[in-house]
Amino acid sequence: MRYYMIAGEASGDLHGSNLIRGLRQEDPQAEFRLWGGEKMLSAATESVDTTLCPCATLVGDYRDTAVMGLTDVVLNIGKICSRLIRCRRDILRWKPDVVVLIDYPGFNMKIARFCHFRGIRVFWYIAPKTWASRSYRNCFLRRYVDRMYLVFPFEKPYFARKNIPFIYKGNPLVDAIDRHEFTRLVEGDYVALLPGSRKGEISRMMPVLMQVADLTGYKFVIAGAPGRTEADYAGYIGSRRNVSLVFGQTYNILKYANSAVINSGTASLEAALIGTPQIVGWNTSKLTYWAATRILKVQNHIKYISLANLIADSLIFKELVQDALKSETVAMELGRLRRPDCRQEMLDGYGTVRELLGGGGASRAVASSMMEELRKLSAQQRSLASIVISDLKIILKGRKES
């Protein structure tokens, strides 16, 4: 089978890489064409017999247009449109058996519609968060996506109510973390800082986090995001001796940290599964925040911004949003997390999250399900084609006899 896969951010690159490994196990002759990152490319090419799989190509890097929020989208609209045109043309040239879209709804919605009208199968892995905003997209999902794969248990009742067929096989992060071989890289007591993967996130989080470093005097280790460089952080770190920067070791940094301050996103769920006490912060532009608050007023059943809190349906750890994200508040909360009773309470909550996500094997299970669904769709198409051919024969026979 030929799989065309599209991810638009670091978390999608991670999930895509795990899915690719599952597909390799289920379909040894699989061919991949990728819009994603180095993790996806590595998974598609590792331990591959090139005589069986001649094609595993990264044609677009997510880091070129990784944006978040209304303001960032407006500022990068030209690059996004150019990428979209190039991606559509590439899909038509390569003629995949299926296009697998991984999260990244703003871009992937357009690709799904494009593929649907050209008879190309579409699977969506990690569904758009229509339960949080833009619920009108549900009509789009019903119409243009052949199969949708969920990764969070709280999504199941929502999409069931919306009459959108889905498949749930667990969360791939459980596999990624359980498979990781942890190594201590930084000695002593320290706090991990994960200010986000996009430049906009870093520019808004880092000034607050550096103020925390000055207030507390703790040792801090920044987990450099994929696709970022030292230059993205150096201007904020300055000459501080209690702040260091490490790239490519996020799981190891989280594992041995006393606690962590994390920009809202997949990293907060990773910290919960690893077992690191945390604080989540989220700070965005005034325009994006204004739009988000109005959307959430319409869908006011959303109580939390962090995945682990959403999964547990309780406030396991603090969420400091917009104006609440202040250096004094973060410093005070970090001090509280050093108390054994507070740490144990949070770890108990993490246990609930892991239990609700289920066991391992999600990536392989999703890959197996995708293969099964492709076989079903192929059988349906063959059946439909045979019916059409049979009807044509009957029509032609009737014309001859008349």
Describe it for me?
By secondary structure, the chain is α/β, with parallel strands linked by helices. The protein is built from 17 helices and 13 strands. The strands form 2 sheets. It has a 7-stranded parallel β-sheet with strand order 3-2-1-4-5-6-7, sandwiched between helices. Strands 10-9-8-11-12-13 form a 6-stranded parallel β-sheet, sandwiched between helices. α4 (77-94) runs parallel beside α5 (105-116) and α9 (199-216) packs parallel to α10. The two termini are 46 Å apart. The model has no long low-confidence stretch (mean pLDDT 88).
Beta content: 15-25%
Give helix % range: 40-55%
- State the shape: globular
Rg value:
23 Å
End-to-end span in angstroms? 46 Å
Derived structural class = alpha/beta
- Strand line-up across the major sheet: 3-2-1-4-5-6-7
- Uncertain segments: none
* SS elements, strand count: 13
Main sheet, how many strands, which sense, barrel? 7 strands, parallel
* Average pLDDT rating: 88
> What is the number of helical segments per DSSP (H or I, 4+ residues)?
17
Order of helices and strands: EHEHEHHEHEHEHEHEHEHEHEHEHHEHHH
